[in-house]
Amino acid sequence: MAIAIHEDFETGQLEVKVSDKLSKEDYEHFEPAVERLIESAGKIKILLVMHDFHGWDMGAVWEDIKFATKHCRDIEKIAMVGETQWEKWMSAICKPFTMSTIKYFDAGQEQEARQWLA
User: Do 60 and 91 touch, CB atoms closer than 8 A?
Assistant: First the structure.
């Protein structure tokens, strides 16, 4: 599996670590975690840490589009921590498709990303 998820119900924060290539099956674990946290906390915050990340397969692209449409108002902030220029560009491309505030952090700035979310 290309995704690891940690739900913090106290802070309403979801930590998502991705590597390799996301598949439709990864979204079958991700979306229920998001929905549990939304149900508990209302609007949530997401820390997305990308390490050796290679994007999405076609099934995951469709799941991502459906997810973004369904939850565009449920996520307050997204901190994206990545290693490559295309991941930084991805954070800018995502902004028009969500009501969330999105900020990109370079690898090694994970602590700063956590502080920004808080």
Answer: no
| In contact, 27 and 63? CB cutoff 8 Å | yes
Beta bridge partners of 47: 15, 79
Q: Give the residue extent of every domain in the chain.
A: 3-117
How far apart (Å, rounded) are the C-alpha atoms in residues 29 and 118?
A: 25
Predicted confidence at residue 113, as pLDDT, reads: 97
- Quick one: CATH architecture of 3-117? 2-Layer Sandwich (3.30)
Angle between helices 58-71 and 24-41 (to 10 degrees): 20
What's the pLDDT tens digit per position in 89-116?
A: 666 666 555 678 889 999 999 999 999 9
